[in-house]
Amino acid sequence: MLMHDSYQQFATVREALPHGQVLHVFGDVDLSTVKQLDRAIDDAAAGGERLFLNLAKCRYFDSSGLAALVRARERVGPRLTVLVKPKTGVYRTLQVVGFDKVFNVVTELDTCWI
Known about the structure:
- This protein is α/β, with parallel strands linked by helices.
- 37% of the residues lie in helices and 31% in strands.
- It has five helices and five strands.
- Strands 1-2-3-4-5 form a five-stranded mixed sheet.
- It is globular.
- The protein starts with 10 loop residues before the first strand and ends with a helix.
- The model has no long low-confidence stretch (mean pLDDT 89).
């Protein structure tokens, strides 16, 4: 069980909810892990349900991760919601490039499970 906030290794965990799929992302998203993220997003989105991409435990998110979000948006469309922790590097990255205005980005679980 993953219990602490410092995840060194990249991993994804998929969770089925009654109203969609949650893809929890842990560790770093960069050039060496982005293909794994793409595959995990494809698998989670295959059923046509809403997809909640939980980046709250993601430690690092570079431009390859941003590109993965663009690809996910092309495949999933408005069914995609991205969850990030406020005041983190990942959140700041999404803000700097304006993704918080283009994507459905939320900072609390309660707002996206409705």
